[in-house]
Amino acid sequence: MIGMGLETGHSAQAEPANAAQPIRILEATYGQRCGVTPGNATDEVARRCNGVQTCTYAVPTRLPIQSGATSQGACRGDFQATWQCGDDGIHVAALGASVSPGDVLILSCVPETGPGR
């Protein structure tokens, strides 16, 4: 046979150019608008999301916003995550000031190919 394109002894295949890369969390912050230090949730979100292609992150019941920075609880915290997919650009997703425990933020490195993309 001629022209089959198969080589014996090689099991690795090149990934398509649009293959999903794993998520790498760069920073995650709860309550930035309340005066907390940016990145206060980076370790937690990275533990849950690094290395996967899509991560559904539910805001935990106890938000790590220090009461001193929230004017005795008057500040309604927000949540923001920044991540990278391989060497691709930086992505940011956020939940606004009304974020509540159980709210979900979806982070993804799966390429969009459908309408509107």
What does this protein structure show overall?
The chain is mainly beta. The protein has one domain (23-108). It contains one helix and five strands, in the order E-H-E-E-E-E. The strands form two sheets. A three-stranded antiparallel beta sheet has the order 1-3-4. Strands 2-5 form a two-stranded antiparallel sheet. Strand 3 (79-85) and strand 4 (90-95) form a beta hairpin. The longest helix is centred in the middle third of the chain and has 8 residues, at 42-49. The radius of gyration is 20 Å and the shape is globular.
- Secondary structure tally, helices: 1
How does the helix and strand content classify structurally?
mainly beta
N→C terminal distance: 42 Å
Order of helices and strands: EHEEEE
Portion in beta strands:
25-35%
Sheet with the most strands: spatial strand order: 1-3-4
Sheet of most strands: 3 strands, antiparallel
How many strand units?
5
Task: Give start-end ranges of low-pLDDT stretches.
Answer: 1-15, 66-72
Instruction: Provide the helix percentage.
Output: under 10%
